[in-house]
TrEMBL record:
Domain Amine oxidase: 11-310
SUPFAM superfamilies associated with the record: FAD/NAD(P)-binding domain (SSF51905)
Swiss-Prot/TrEMBL keywords: FAD, Flavoprotein, NAD, NADP, Signal
InterPro entries, per the entry: Amino_oxidase, FAD/NAD-bd_sf, Retinol_saturase
Pfam families: Amino_oxidase
GO function terms (MF aspect): oxidoreductase activity
Gene3D superfamilies recorded: FAD/NAD(P)-binding domain
Protein name per Swiss-Prot or TrEMBL: Amine oxidase domain-containing protein
Amino acid sequence: MKKCVIIGSGLGGLACGAILAKNGHRVTVLEKEHQPGGCLQCFHRGGVKFETGMHFVGSAAPGQTLDRLLRYLEIKDRVQLSPLDKEGYEVVSLEGRHYRLANGREAFIKQLSASFPSSVDELNRYYDLIERVAHASSLHQLSALPIDDVLTASYLLRSIDEVMNEIVRDEQLRNVLMGTLPLYAAEWGKTPFSVHAFVTDFYQQSAYRIVGGSDHIARSLIETIERYGGKVVTRQSVSAIVCDDTHAIGVTTADEKLWEADFVISDLHPKRTMELTASSLLRPAYRRRIAALPNTVGCFTVYLKFKPHTVPYMNSNFFGYRQASPWNCEQYTEANWPMGYLYMHFCNEDGQRYAESGQIISYMRYEEVEKWENTRVGHRGTDYEAFKKEHAERLIAAVEEEFPGLASQIESYYTSTPLTYRDYTGAERGGMYGIAKDISLGPASRVHHRTKIPNLLLTGQNINSHGVLGVLVGTLVTCGEIIGAEALGQIGR
């Protein structure tokens, strides 16, 4: 039995806590905020509920990857899922023309071949490649045995656009297939094709919303931790990771308390983790590399409260683009923002008829709000409020082009910027998905779960890959350092 102190209660921290507690270790999760969960957090405004980060999940049908993970974490029966429309769980709109993405190979190809009848062979080739790359990863398939990690590695080194240009000749079809790229903030010439393959395969198998919000996952993971004797302590800001000459001995919090540990796991951004220890075991070159890594773009979100019984519940996610291509929306100008957005509804109950609330999300660079970075939430000034109001109205107007009458159905709205995201979730510069994957940086763009401090480990979205699946499979690697790789075999059965 080892004492394991985990810094941060995001999905990575809580999942590590559940796995380690379940395997007999003494777990303490320290969270600086009053509400645990990181991007799993939800909040209430105007009597309705909103999510902050995890809006829908995939591969959760019986026997699929997320289903197996949820069962292993012992939260499957405590988290209710509502399936999205299998015939169009995602809708991509390019200049007003809509394309529905369906679950499953046959339905997916049938839907798109109606618009691209001469591209059936290319759609099959595309789907084959997505499956080959995603299923070649032993990690993502929860297999204790190697599958074809060489294939996975090769597509880690090739950009999405390079591969797509090879396998799909029709430019419009390529743009449709890339219409969901905000799910991982893909950048032209930089983001590896493997990222696209993992995310696409994850949702292609099945797609669901979390009934009542993603904070149910956080609460359920905390229940698992506590059931096995662990604890999650909020309002405990870690001020330092304490090390001797060879390893970490624990962490101190703002109240100067020492929390002794055999292992320390950080769910923080790696840059923040480096700042918490002055240990010479972390070499200057390593610290500089971590500090220099690029982060994904941030976002501006409008949270909509609808007038009662006015907006039919939309059982799909809508990706809207005001131009022919979904690429380079992060390179907007003041004049053409927003170039694209994701619009979706909150799921209060399975079989819902009317939406109570919804969200519109669009890219926003941190530089837009940088002048207010030293202010506090709720005290940023009237110019900041005017900035948010202007952008909210522009974003609502953009969605109104696709959904006429929407504005008249909104009772009230609320907003967040990259600063909000930074302050509530700890995201570096408010980035949507942490450290950006960039093939131009090669292996240097990837952060390993191990550090040169032998018992200091890393977890979270910066370590493996983005999203719920990337984070959860990453926790298996991190926890494997403590409980052994056989954990993969347990989950795979």
